[in-house]
């Protein structure tokens, strides 16, 4: 089994796509007006408009209603990403911090309120843990 993607459902697809294009520094693929994908080597971040929900089962998901998942991206330099994104991110949940498990991280919310974590392993143990994952 291969982990393929995480999909966010939103009422404002264009706004969320533009946000993640700025955060990720890549353009989304738009195979349909109601769907976008950021295809990366490690995984795909998909964004679907709430109009697509009936395709999965009426009421199966609700746009902008997540408080249990963190969307995480491994980066090379958390502090550099923080400086790059400072003019763009309105509210930081966590400014650059080294976590107890050895990752340096910044956390913020996307326009729909989803929590986003940019992190880099910085301690010897964390670096070993992530060796070969990228």
Automatic annotation (TrEMBL):
InterPro entries: Glyas_Bleomycin-R_OHBP_Dase (IPR029068), Glyas_Fos-R_dOase_dom (IPR004360), MMCE/EMCE_epimerase (IPR051785), VOC_core (IPR037523). GO terms for biological process: L-methylmalonyl-CoA metabolic process. GO terms for molecular function: metal ion binding; methylmalonyl-CoA epimerase activity. Gene3D superfamilies: 2,3-Dihydroxybiphenyl 1,2-Dioxygenase, domain 1 (3.10.180.10). Pfam families: Glyoxalase. Residues 2-121 form the VOC domain. Keywords: Metal-binding. This is VOC domain-containing protein. It comes from Gracilibacillus orientalis.
